[in-house]
Design goal:
Elements: E1 8-10, E2 12-19, H1 21-30, H2 39-42, E3 47-52, H3 57-79, H4 92-98, E4 99-104, E5 107-109
Antiparallel strand pairs: 1-5, 2-3, 2-4
Length: 119
C-alpha cells in the first residue's frame, strides 16, 4: 500500500542473519585463507531475507523452521563454496547455534522504481 508521502509498506517481514562463533570456527577450518577474519568482520554486512509477514515470535520460528536449511546453505555458499566442507546437519537447532537473527516486521520501500526479481 503506497502512502501519500510515496512510501510503500511491504507485506513482508525481514530476517537479518548474522554468523556466530560456530560459523567462524567452521570457516577457519574450511578455508585456509580465512584465518585473519574475526567475527566482527563476518557481521559487518549481514544478509537480510524477506519472508512472509510475521507478527509474532512463533510465526517467525515457524517460517524459519521451514526455510532454515535454505538460509544456512546461502550463508555457507556466500563464504566458502566447497560443499564437501559444509556441515551435514543443517537443522533448525544447529542453525540457531550458528546464527543470530533480527526480525523486522515493518518494511517500508522508499524507492520509486519497481522491484525487479533477478534469477
Amino acid at each position: 500500500m503506497r502512502a501519500e508521502d510515496g512510501k510503500l509498506l511491504l507485506n513482508r517481514s525481514a530476517l537479518v542473519v548474522k554468523p556466530k562463533e560456530p560459523f567462524l570456527d567452521w570457516l577457519h577450518k574450511a578455508d585456509p585463507t580465512s584465518h585473519e577474519l574475526a567475527l566482527e568482520d563476518l557481521v559487518l554486512e549481514p544478509t537480510a531475507y524477506l519472508i512472509p509477514e510475521c507478527g509474532t515470535r512463533e510465526e517467525v520460528t515457524e517460517v524459519l523452521r521451514e526455510r532454515c536449511e535454505e538460509i544456512f546453505v546461502d550463508q555457507l555458499d556466500g563464504w566458502y563454496r566447497d560443499q564437501a566442507t559444509w556441515p551435514r546437519n543443517r537443522s533448525f537447532a544447529v542453525f540457531s547455534r550458528w546464527f543470530d537473527l533480527e526480525h523486522h516486521s515493518m518494511l517500508m520501500d522508499l524507492c520509486h522504481e519497481p522491484l525487479i526479481r533477478e534469477p
